[in-house]
Amino acid sequence: LPISSPLATLVAAADRSRPTPGEPAQPAPKPVKPRAVQWGPKGLEAIAICRQSTKSSKWVCNGPLDDQIIVDEPTLESALERQRCAGGEFVTGGPRLEGVQWNAYRCGHALGYGDYDLAKRHGLSIARRSYICPADQQGDGRCTTPYSGQDKGS
């Protein structure tokens, strides 16, 4: 048996894959169309309100998860994280509660199932974004996809 080089083997294999003259060519595969996303309900953005104690310089936040009653967080960020509002974005329009001004923060996700709606609770007039989840997404409802009419189709 003759020994052939690897290059010769590849060329021979490529020649076998081409149609012979008069033989119909194979149709090109059809591109796979991505499945359209089915969207669930829209949700309003979660809001947290925070203040710093003038006595201890520690932070307290009320937010989507609860009303924190102990002023014990060393930083604003740790107080926001406690409310599932890490990286919260300051927004004007925080409430004045019992003579103390609180700052409002947008959390960057929709309210989850069972979360407190602080904007509604305190009658805040602040700019809130809307978010939407894919209908088949499992989770707690805290979507991070900003709503831009996705559910209306194209």
Describe, in plain words, how this protein is organized in 3D:
The chain is α+β, with helices and mostly antiparallel strands and 154 residues long. The protein contains three helices and seven strands. Strands 1, 2, 3, 6 and 7 form a five-stranded antiparallel β-sheet that branches. A hairpin with a 2-residue loop joins strand 4 and strand 5 (100-101). The longest helix has 12 residues, at 6-17. The radius of gyration is 29 Å and the shape is elongated.
List the helices and strands and how they pair.
Blueprint lengths: L5 H12 L21 E14 L6 E4 L13 H7 L6 E3 L4 E2 L2 E2 L1 E8 L7 H4 L8 E5 L20
Antiparallel strand pairs: 1-2, 1-6, 1-7, 3-6, 4-5
User: How would you classify the helix and strand content by structural class?
Assistant: alpha+beta
Uncertain regions spanning at least 5 consecutive residues: none
Distance between the termini: 63 Å
Question: Describe the biggest sheet?
Answer: 5 strands, antiparallel
